[in-house]
Amino acid sequence: MREVSQPATEAIRLVDVLRALADPVRLELVQRLDRMGEDACNAIGGEIDVHQTTLSHHYRVLREAGVTWTTVQGRSRLVRLRRNDLDTLFPGLLDSVLNARRRTPDTVTTSTVETP
Q1: How far apart are the C-alpha atoms of 15 and 61, rounded to whole Å?
Q2: Distance between CA 12 and CA 65 in Å, rounded?
Q3: If I label 68, which of 34, 83, 88, 104 is the partner at 20 to 30 A Cα–Cα?
Q4: At what angle do helices 14-21 and 93-103 cross, to 10 degrees?
Q5: Do 36 and 30 contact (CB within 8 A), yes or no?
Q6: Predicted structure pTM score
Q7: Which residues lie below 8 Å from residue 94, measured CB to CB, with a gap of 6+?
Q8: Integer Cα distance of 22 and 16 in angstroms
Q9: Could you give the CA distance from residue 95 to residue 2 in angstroms, rounded to a whole number?
């Protein structure tokens, strides 16, 4: 099992995490990861109506910001939230963002999503 480039815990910056979580598609992906735990990128994003290249962009932004951890297994990429790291660095942030998302859900569709 190999891993892709992603920041060490001490390199995660709040501004990058907030920027990554500000997009409705990425927030939806994070919410699904929170419910599902680890899963393959295409399984998590399969229910979101965005093009595969756009989805890959969103996963990369989340990974590079330190919100998710991606592991490569053969041709599959398994993604999981870095909840422990985020909770240690920014206590309560992820829970606050996800709770706010649950109270005011946005419907993610291609008409509301900008491509990179």
Answers
A1: 13
A2: 7
A3: 104
A4: 20
A5: no
A6: 0.81
A7: 30, 34, 81, 83, 86, 87
A8: 10
A9: 29
Ranges of the chain whose pLDDT falls below 70: 1-3, 41-46, 105-116
- 12 contacts 86 by C-beta, under 8 angstroms: yes
- 58 and 25 Cβ atoms separated by less than 8 Å: yes
* DSSP secondary structure letters along 6-35: ---GGG--HHHHHHHHTSHHHHHHHHHHHH
Tens-digit pLDDT profile for residues 44-77: 666 777 888 888 899 999 999 999 999 888 888 8
Q: Give the integer Cα–Cα distance in Å for 93 and 75.
A: 33
- The length of the chain is 116
Strand order in the sheet with 39-40: 2-3, 68-73, 76-81, 39-40
Helices (H), the chain: 14-21, 24-36, 41-45, 52-65, 83-89, 93-103
Structure token digits, residue 28:
């939806």
Inter-residue contact 63 to 101 (CB < 8 Å): no
Tokens of 21: 């979580």
